[in-house]
Each structure stands twice: as C-alpha cells, then as structure tokens.
Amino acid sequence: MKKVFLFAAAAALVFSACQKEDRVSDTKTTDVQFNVVDGLTETGLKSGDLNRGSIPVTVSEMSILAESVHPDVSADFTIVDDASGMAAPMLSDVWYGTNVFSATTKATTIATPSYGDHKVFFGDMIYPSGVYKEVAPGLVAFTDVRPGGSWSPTVMAEQLRTNVVPYVEFSGESSPIVINDAYAVSPTQIPIHMSTTFGQLIVTFEFEKPSLIDNYHARLFYQEPVDMNNVGVDYDYLKIRNNWDRFFTSNENLGTVYWSNADATVGKCLPIAVEIYSYEGGNYVPVKWIMLDTDYTKIEAGTSKWVRVVVNDEALMTNVDMFNFTWDGWSNKNVDLEITD
User: Fold this and answer.
1) What are the boundaries of each domain within the chain?
2) Each residue of 324-341: pLDDT tens digit?
3) How far, in whole angstroms, is CA 210 from its chain's centroid?
C-alpha cells in the first residue's frame, strides 16, 4: 500500500508546486487545528505542553479525540503556566473523511486547608482569624475566633472566589467535519464549545448588624451532598473543632461553608440547617431551627453561587397572644376590732 505524507499547510503548498505525484493513497491523514471555546474565550490547543493563555485556571489537563470510521486519533495536553509550552493548535494524523472532534478537561487538584501562624491557609487564601472543619475534600466550614472577626461576608466570598480554584471539568464536541485535500491545503480552525455541569457554592451566616440581637449563637447542621430529589430529614451536627465545641456563628462572628468538588454538579444540593441558641446565665437554650431551602444551596452549572444568610431581629421575635390567665379569687373579709382601753 502506497502512502502520501502530508505536511503542515504551508509545506504542502510548496511541495505541490515543485513536484506532481500521481500516486493515490486510501489512508491519507493530516493535521487539524482547533479553537476550544469555553463560552467566553477561544483557546488554541496542541499536543504536549500547552501555554495556559486564556484557558480557565480550573483546567490542568485536556484531551482531544477525533472519531471517524477509522481508528480513533487522540492527544493529551498538559496546561502550563510558565510559558514553556507550545501555542499552536494541532491534532496530528487525523484520518481523511468525516470526523467528530471532542474535548474533555481534567480539573486542578482540590485545595486542602491548613493552619499556620494563627491563620488558615486555603488555596491562595490566607484567612487571618478563623478555624475550619474539612468535612470532605472541597467541603469546608469556617468560623471566626474573635468577636467581629476579620472579614465581612462580602470579603470572605470574594477571597474564596478569587484565591481558591474551584473543581470544574469541561467537555465539548464539534459538529461532523469533513477532512480532505481541500482542508489539508487550506486548514481552518475547528471550534469546540466547552460546557460544564460543575458549580461552586459559598454560604455565609451572620446575625444582622447593627441590631438588637445579643447573646445569640448558632450551630451548623448538614447532610452529605445529595440529589435534589433525595434530601433526607436527618441532619448531622458539624462540630468545627473536635476538642472545642465552638459555635458556628455568634453575635458578630461570621460562619462560612465552601463547597466545590466532584459532587458539586447540576442536580446536587447541600442541605444545611442552623439551630439558634439564647445564652442565659451560663446556659444555652435552643430557640429556633432554620433549614435553608435547597433551591438556594443547589449547584448551578458554571456558576459560583454566594448565598448570604442574615438572621435579623424579626427572626428571633414573635407575638405572644395565647395567654390563659388564672385569677385569685376576690372575697370580702370583715374584721371587728373593739378597743376597750
């Protein structure tokens, strides 16, 4: 079987101008260029190490596959941030004929929180005043350790979004593309729209400030991430420190839940509840149970969702009008006092 070797487009043009070849091969292949579109940007890809460019920071590796009636052709790409990789998009030796090209990505490693110098380190975030509980990789609860804390809920949410890379995987597929001599001579980039079912959830808890609220505290309860249709009724107490029964939110202290891992996909939610206590003379009296609607804590595709939960004065007040009075009887009493001296 005779084979015709095809080069990059410019080389092929030069070759055809210098020599005419009348041999025909039934096993032609060529190189294919890509644009992988993540919905906002277009990114060039090629086999081997690839400069990140505008590829989302959530991507650490990528694979491209060409499927046709011939054997599959694929290539793996490692995304690098030091500009040492290649930038030209290329999938080599793609078979002539109709091909469907697909791409998938691998997420970056999930960040693990740690302590150091009286601070919490999580990804590139340095939380200056807090403790944490890692329920599972990518599911972490934080709380302040001093009154007033160090960050507002807005700052906390922004720090998590900016400095902790979420767990996200993308995939996409092209429409059927015919690869032939015309393409080999004048190649065009093949777009692949990359979509994701992954999302990120950040939930902050606070008591309203300024307000009349004082001496109220809250404990956090949760269920494992679950399908929206299978939420149970039992919640587990999330103890922030195993040897320290610290409240999740107290007066001016902020509590935060972060969730982004392989379970954080469309259709999943994180059932969360808080129980509020009133501190009364050395005793903590439970006064209110609040379950968050799972519509708020469900994952939305390609979205970093921040749910800011604020417990205000009205939540801890109610009208009391169901009184049942019992009255002491009222009777008449006569006393005769006779003074004789």
Assistant:
1) 9-108+168-193, 114-166+198-315
2) 988 888 888 889 898 887
3) 31
